[in-house]
Design goal:
Number of helices: 6
Strand content: 25-35%
Helix content: 10-25%
Strand order of the largest sheet: 3-2-1-4-5-6
Order of helices and strands: EHEHEHEHEEHEEEEEH
Number of strands: 11
Largest sheet: 6 strands, parallel
């Protein structure tokens, strides 16, 4: 995979290092030549220039990139790079770094951003995920603010403990994608029984998060099960 990263600061360099370790082709764009010497990135290619300039992006052969990452410390630059990558070069996937949470609303498809990474918000979510038991925590927003990855840690006395995933009537556009139990990742199936302390990871439409929260927190009623007590198949599970 060919990845172009605008901004070779600590964030851009860290992303490049991880991608290089996975054998991806990396090109970094930065205005400061000195970043090359201090980066320590072996195998990366470099282009010194302004990533907001079309000539620089042409020199970077952005039309051949699979992904463009805008990782500078300036939100205006990250938006412009994402927009140019989409509108002028047809890049299939763009990732934009959000520095100021107040600007989060702009990082959507209207500015060519496929995935916005809001570091302060992500850190907040990870803190909440570590301490918030029994509530739904949004970890990451995907697809231009339409879909999210959420986490729910099952409390000891949760009404869903002992129930199978297949008996949970999840809202439309909500899918359990993983269960973390005793530091082991489990691929979910309708027959898996929910245990206290399970961390459920779901992909959910943001508009359905409130309904999903109600399902995970609600006490199951008789209407949740058919007359014979058999579990009802849940939408979104294979």
């Amino acid at each position: 995979m060919r990845v172009v990263i605008a901004g070779a600061g600590s964030v851009g360099s860290s992303i490049a290092k991880e991608l290089l370790s996975n054998n991806h082709e990396i090109l970094l764009i930065d205005e400061k030549p000195e970043v090359i010497g201090r980066s320590g990135l072996k195998g990366a290619k470099w282009l010194i220039g302004d990533a907001c300039e079309l000539t620089t992006l042409k020199d970077a052969r952005l039309d051949e990139a699979d992904v463009v990452v805008s990782a500078t410390g300036d939100d205006k630059v990250n938006l412009v790079v994402s927009l140019l990558a989409k509108s002028e070069f047809g890049v299939g996937r763009t990732v934009g770094r959000v520095n100021n949470p107040k600007n989060d609303w702009m990082f959507d498809d209207s500015w060519g951003v496929d995935v916005a990474v809001n570091t302060p918000r992500l850190m907040t979510a990870l803190v909440e995920e570590a301490v918030e038991i029994g509530d739904l925590v949004r970890l990451l927003t995907l697809q231009s603010g339409v879909t999210s990855i959420v986490e729910f840690t099952v409390p000891q006395e949760s009404p869903i403990v002992g129930r199978t995933l297949g008996s949970l009537i999840l809202p439309e556009d909500c899918t359990v994608v993983a269960i973390l139990r005793d530091d082991a990742s489990i691929t979910p199936s309708p027959d898996d029984v929910v245990e206290p302390g399970d961390e459920l990871f779901l992909i959910a439409a943001i508009a359905a998060e409130d309904a999903l929260r109600s399902v995970l927190l609600a006490v199951p009623g008789e209407s949740d099960l058919p007359d014979d007590g058999a579990p009802v198949d849940a939408p979104g599970l294979p």
